[in-house]
Amino acid sequence: MMGWLRSKGKTSNIAAKQDPDSKAQDSTEVSIEEISEVEAFSSSAGSLFAPRLFDETKPLLTVSGVERSFSVGGRQLDVLKGIDMALFPMQLIMLKGRSGSGKTTLLNMIGGLDQPNKGEIVFMGHPFHQSGDDQRTLVRRKEIGFIFQSFALMPLLSAWENVELALRMANVPRSEWKKRTAHCLDLVGLSKRMHHRPFELSGGEQQRVAIAKAIAHRPSLLLADEPTAELDSQMGAQVMAVFRDIIQAEQVTICMTTHDPTIMEVADHVFEMVDGKFINT
Ligand SMILES: Nc1ncnc2c1ncn2[C@@H]1O[C@H](COP(=O)(O)OP(=O)(O)OP(=O)(O)O)[C@@H](O)[C@H]1O
Ligand SMILES: [Mg+2]
Known about the structure:
- By secondary structure, the chain is an alpha/beta fold.
- It has a single domain (4-279), classed as Rossmann fold, CATH 3.40.50.
- It is built from eight helices and 13 strands.
- It has helices at residues 32-42, 103-110, 133-143, 159-169, 174-187, 203-215, 233-250, 261-264; strands at residues 4-7, 43-44, 53-54, 61-72, 75-87, 92-96, 118-123, 126-127, 144-147, 221-225, 253-257, 269-274, 277-279.
- The strands form three sheets. It has a six-stranded mixed beta sheet with strand order 9-10-11-6-12-13, sandwiched between helices.
- Strand 10 (221-225), helix 7 (233-250) and strand 11 form a beta-alpha-beta unit.
- The two termini are 26 Å apart.
- The structure holds adenosine-5'-triphosphate and magnesium ion (MG).
- The site of magnesium ion has 3 residues, from helix 2.
């Protein structure tokens, strides 16, 4: 049994998006009863601020023998050819590899947006490889946050309103919005810009609002696809400093993709993908 005694965390994130083009073969659905059992030991009473109690030696997520192919123009394109990895609590993990090597494909599967054709993905006791869309969505909304290269903020809403919207979408009680929004904007160093709308913020500031939004519902895992790609090196470094801070403050685990060797220097571990597999793991 996994050593998770996590404080509850009401809720959900709005970020989930694209659906996979096909489902895993042999997708044996897990019953709601089984999911409830998993919930029973992965969560316990608490709040958006309570400390998490967990065994740091037990992985938050394991990926075993994962393969993913796509059918393109009648031909099979093998993108992931046997991926094995484990993410441990409060780690900062990076995926690197040339364009088209499969980093986003893997990130989507870790986040429960897509499923492997073969292999296993277990996140906090939830078998993503054999659970249905609805079950993965429930887990994702509660435990996972997403950050994208292009920030994905609502353009007409202020930084404060963007974060508050995430809480509203996650069904967090209105009484908690003010405190949690202020906390998240403070964590990313934007308390002084809370009333600015995205176009009134720099690229780095916009990405920091996106981080505040992604952690608002207190996920256990933050997935970021090229979060610094549109930023200059100084703003990229600021985003990485924020990542380091929130790992400690929120006890979150971060898995991100990047092409930038300077950014990789702050990782706890870098997985390099070549021809659908990791090398040097
Ligand atoms: N839904 C899909 N249907 C068909 N092919 C796909 C699909 N998704 C991804 N691919 C293919 O899988 C390969 C890996 O794509 P992926 O987006 O994971 O690469 P990446 O490593 O994230 O690249 P980049 O660094 O450019 O973001 C690419 O060749 C891509 O064309
Ligand atoms: Mg990509």
